[in-house]
Fold this sequence. Notes:
Elements: H1 2-23, E1 28-36, H2 46-68, E2 70-78, H3 83-97, E3 101-103, H4 107-113, H5 117-120, E4 124-125, E5 141-142, H6 148-161, E6 169-175, H7 180-195, E7 199-206, H8 215-222, E8 228-231, H9 235-248, E9 254-256, H10 262-269, E10 279-282, H11 293-305, H12 313-336, H13 343-349, E11 382-389, E12 392-395, E13 401-402
Parallel strand pairs: 1-2, 1-3, 3-4, 4-5, 6-7, 6-8, 8-9, 9-10
Antiparallel strand pairs: 10-11, 11-12, 11-13
Helix pairs in contact: 2-11, 2-12, 3-4, 6-7, 8-9, 12-13
Amino acid sequence: MRTRRRGNLLGVSAILAVFFMTSGGIAAEYNITGSVDFTGPYAVVMPPIDETADIFFAWWNEEVGSKIGVKLNRKSYDTRYDPAITASLWPGILSGDKPLAHLGLGGPDVAALMKRLPEDKVPLIMSTGTYGFIWLPNQWVFQPRPTYVHETVGFFNWVKQDWKENRPIRVGGISFQGSPAYVDGINGFQKYDESDPMIEYVGTEWVKFQPETLVTEINRLSKKKPDYLFIMTNTYQGVGTIKAQKELGIHIPVVLSSHNGIQMSAMATKDMKLLEGHYDSASIDPGIDPSLPAAQIFEKYKKKLGKETKWSILTGQAAVMTLLAFRGVERAVKEVGAAKLTGEAIYKAMYVAPFAEKEDLLGIAPTLTFTKEAPFSTKGVKVKATTVKDGKQVMVSQDWIPVPEVPKWAEPEKK
Length: 415
């Protein structure tokens, strides 16, 4: 009698489990892992990135995952922004956490994992800009932003709209030869220059990674009369270029990226006014509009979790990376069900349809269409650019700025 009753109870439990799984009552739990850097070169900016991930995981689990029967656990690992450490930790992450996806920080994650991911069947998602040498087909890497070259070209597409001079826009570059990534940006822009008669590239000043002064280099480059200087490298070189111009008594607008741009340079110098009349450009919202749906979610769950982080371009980058992973999960649930999610299911889901700017990405990025030709969306690439006016960061245009076609410049690695 007891055996029969127990069997009946087990049967009822199984039925209830199925019922609650399909109605969102009981969640199938999965892990999404990520790289963080609290002890390496990006330790200073890591707290807001880390807290934003916590905020958006909390939001998704409560408001989205609970309705589709899935709970996502966030597990992070301090990789010190070092490919060797990432590579050494990866086998344990893979076997212990069995992640649906991994959220990366940048180049070290790509260097350590890019060739492994197709075999391991775990997509890598990260929201930094990327490089020409990663512009390869059939990757398991997904990035909401294109190359840094695309982002800079987008800025100059905006400049061209009101260019009054009867000549091309003259552009100079500042970079560091000791980093393949930094050299890549110069190569890519020079390749674009060959395809655009409205751009005249006047040359590059190769400087130290952390220059003490750039007066000599900027003085030399200024003699070529550039209308703009672009710097895709770091805050040392960006801020150093601006300070050198002040010493020389000249003003050539500098175009920066997100990681060395207006907010990051102001954070480094504690002087927003220093950046007056200079610019940054990236394929991501700059984090100065509190009305964005993503920003509103951020503020709501920030209060719930007791976080102190402010909405910014840094938190926006962390948000869009997690959003892409979440949307991949949502799509995969529709295809395979909540109980059968895998990294491969997420990978396939990324190609099902475009990720809409407002509905999927909550305004942080333009609509993204992933294909297997590149790890980033090559269709409808757009940027937002900002400048500093009267000591305040402002948009140069409220609309996304379209990026013209950029030719490939890096040759694929020969086997």
